[in-house]
């Protein structure tokens, strides 16, 4: 068992007391050597020994007491440890029992919920079956009447279907001709161009090279600021043979034939794209790319379904494949470019008009400045004339004042009547 710090402190105090006693004895011995009393030295030694013995005994008692306290504390700690262990075990048993009870209660609740859900689903199924039975009976009654009506309509439609079959046969024979098929695709593309682009925005059957007789079906002028704007070449292609073989293979559920038809369609598209790139991409007469138009969305969907074909054609041959659904979007972009170009031209016209207006305003400012100078000169002339008129008026007034005392009173009226008219006017002018 480790020694308590209090015991170490007691032992340290005893050692210090012994040391002090020895120091005192040493001093007394020195003093005895000088002639001090020997009895006094002996008594002091006895007292030191007694004190040391008492200190040692007290230290032993303290050590025994501390040992008993340590044993009591160890016993108490063991008891506390046992109590805590028992408490933890009891809590663990209680928690395990509670968890088991909760698990049992939860399983009971889940079982009750499952039974309740089963009962509700059975009731719902019975109600649904009953309503479905009623609805089916009602529907059957009305359906028989409708069937009878539709049979008559079907007989009427059979005749129309026969006529339509004949028309479809005629359409197949029409599309069997390559030239007729190409003309149909060209007409469809022309209709889209007319609907979206402004008048005069494209040319038909234009020759792009002077040393070649090849003509492109449609050449769309691009909306750029140039004396001779470049054109976008658009050519319509309709490879119906490969497309029809592909549709037939899909309908027959023949994977081998479908793969062969897709490869044939892919090869046909590559060949046509190469031809367009060779014939119709002629910078700077044309832009850096061209458009291959497919007349049906179904054909375009099958081409787009081939992995990487459209990207490879665009990257290798600089040809964009378009269908009826995408072509108007691209043409609207070009039309927006025309609108932007017209706005820019209008802006330039407005800028020129503003410049001309500014020049006219500068000229008008010069004219107004001349008018201001002339007006100031006229104003000074008018002031000079008024000044001279005032002088003449004052002279005339002086003449009137000088002539009044010399005339007789009776003759004033006669002289006034004989006065010149200009003098009267001058007199009036002074008052005025």
From TrEMBL:
Q: Where is the signal peptide?
A: none
Q: Which domain of life is it from?
A: Bacteria
Region Disordered, as annotated, extends over 397-432
Report the record's Gene Ontology biological process terms: DNA recombination
What Pfam families does the record tag this protein with?
A: RmuC
* The entry's keywords: Coiled coil, DNA recombination, Membrane, Transmembrane, Transmembrane helix
User: Where is coiled-coil annotated?
Assistant: none
Q: Which residues cross the membrane?
A: 6-25
The task this protein performs is described as: Involved in DNA recombination.
Give the UniProt family note. Answer: Belongs to the RmuC family.
Q: What is this protein called?
A: DNA recombination protein RmuC homolog
Question: Which organism is the protein's source?
Answer: Komagataeibacter rhaeticus
